[in-house]
Amino acid sequence: MSRLKLIEISKHFGAIQALASVSLSIEPGEVLGLMGDNGAGKSTLVKIIAGNFHPSSGEIRIDDRPVAFHNPRDAQREGIEVVYQDLALCNNLSAASNVFLGREPVKRFGPLAFIDYAHMNRVSAKLFSRLKSETRPRDLVRRMSGGQRQAVAIARTLLSEPKIVMMDEPTAAISVRQVAEVLDVIRRLRDHGISVILISHRMPDVFGVSDRIAVLRRGELVANKRAADSSPEEVTGLITGAIQAA
Amino acid sequence: MTTIDDIISASEHKNWLARITSLQSFWVLLAAIVACLALTFLTDSFATERNLFNVARNFAFVAIIAIGMTAVIASGGIDLSVGSSVVLSAMVISVTMAAGTPFWLAALMALGAALLVGLLNGVLVAYAGMPPFVVTLGTLSAARSLAMVLSDNKMIWEFGPDHNLLLWIGGGSTFGIPHPLYVLAVLTVLMSCIFKWTRWGQHLFAIGGNENAALLTGIPVRLMKVSIYMFSAFTAGLAGILMAGWLGSVTTNLGQAMELTVIAAAVIGGANLAGGEGNAVGAVVGALLIEVIRNSLILLGISTFWQGMFIGTFIVVAVAFDRVRHFRS
């Protein structure tokens, strides 16, 4: 049983073919590295899985059940969470507020509903310790390091016990030590049985954590193989087109 | 059990003295208090009951709207139409009351008129995606023009059967405290709680902090924006009703250029024009400082032409202070 199965997904914007008949599947607890040059269709694919775009044709199945997403909420309900490249954090709010953004728990007194900050801080602290991150729930995101921000964005996805977490360039703009932390977090997600789709340009990071590697070129899937059977050289060739397919 | 984390977070979050001194509104309040003390010693007329009563009442109108403006600014927007919403609301209540409508019904209609201006602002900003500066500049012009049409540009000073009730509500006092101040106090406490403790407040600051993030996490950004502009217009409508009662007559130049004073009060009180920051108490304190400056210039016999210079300086100083604070952290 595949956690997520894409069957012949195509997407065109007017005359532009962004994705051509892409078929891909991912197992529970598997890390899939999704690679490709700018404009290869990675973002389009991610947005289709996340419910931002509707595919022009093709089918998405989760746990072998066909699903149709009309908006990101539908995808979230099916257990799909996204960590966006810009992390989508509010600098002016605390870490806990960011984790719960849009899903704040409330305490009710008759018709009045107050945000339960104590609960938010408690749950966030647990999530951060599960990620083994030294992030404190009450700190403002503005004052955090890149790695801590990343942890906040990832903790947000864990709030709903997700099945699939997609990460868009999580290691693009952070220091070497923080990259190691983020890769550790990805391994920890995998150990909890969560499927991770990692979109990245950074070859060593992708090979460091991925079980399988998929390469897109001009909207077509040109490779989908075990990371152990591939090499950075081969993937570079696939991305640029020096190697046609593998 | 005390862990090192607890100690760090205690030192960063729980030291109330450090927290208060890091608030812009604290320093603004301090400036206002110093100005008050100085005036008490420099003039005979400042600390009189009559003058304090006037200061309290005058600043209440600006402060009430500044709370609404703070909500808009904290969400990353701006509302230039509040001065015109004031005159529209005041004109609706005075025209309908002069025609014999009872106060409560007329007040509801006045608030309704102001809320419609806010609704228009919000819909154009949120759903048509137009820049708030332009949209509210348009309604600034349109709402005042509507007030002129409504009154045929005449002064109205007869308010029908509930004439005395309106004058009492806007211009009267209970236990020696003018009524607009009660309205302001209730609004300040209420909005402080709402900003901090409700999802509406949290989402407002999230939109101001990172609108894209708010969208991606499923916050109903458009609906929020409409409600925020309507709240701002509501505070202007409320102030319009109170000002009609206080002045005892309404002309179409009521609230002219008031939006600038209101924005100044909000910014001096700590609202960040880039969005994401601001608080109700700050707006009130900012309005207080502006009124104290205005009053002191009059009492000290300095030409009121200097007023703009002082307020302008305070706006720049307040923003500079904010920059320094962010630079440090």
Structure description:
The complex is a heterodimer of chains A (246) and B (329). With 246 residues, chain A is α/β, with parallel strands linked by helices. Helix content of chain A is 32%, strand content 29%. In chain A, strands 6-9-10-3-11-12 form a 6-stranded mixed β-sheet, with helices on both faces. A 4-stranded antiparallel β-sheet of chain A has the order 2-1-4-5, with helices on one face. Chain A is globular, with a radius of gyration of 19 Å. Chain B is mainly α. Chain B has one domain (26-36, 47-328): ABC transporter involved in vitamin B12 uptake, BtuC (Orthogonal Bundle). Chain B has 15 helices and 2 strands. Chain B has a two-stranded antiparallel ribbon. Classes of the chains: A alpha/beta (246), B mainly alpha (329).
Quick structural gist:
With 246 residues, chain A is α/β, with parallel strands linked by helices. Helices cover 32% and strands 29% of the residues of chain A.
Question: Hey, roughly how much beta strand do the residues of chain A contain?
Answer: 25-35%
Look at the structure and give the CATH class of chain B.
Mainly Alpha
Write down how many β-strands of chain A occur, each being a DSSP E stretch of 2 or more residues: 12
Class by helix and strand content of chain A? alpha/beta
Query: SSE order of chain B in H/E notation?
Result: HHHHHHHHEEHHHHHHH
Low-confidence blocks of residues of chain B: none
Q: Summarize the amount of helix of chain A as a percent range.
A: 25-40%
Multimeric state of these chains? heterodimer
- If you consult CATH, what is the topology of chain B? ABC transporter involved in vitamin B12 uptake, BtuC
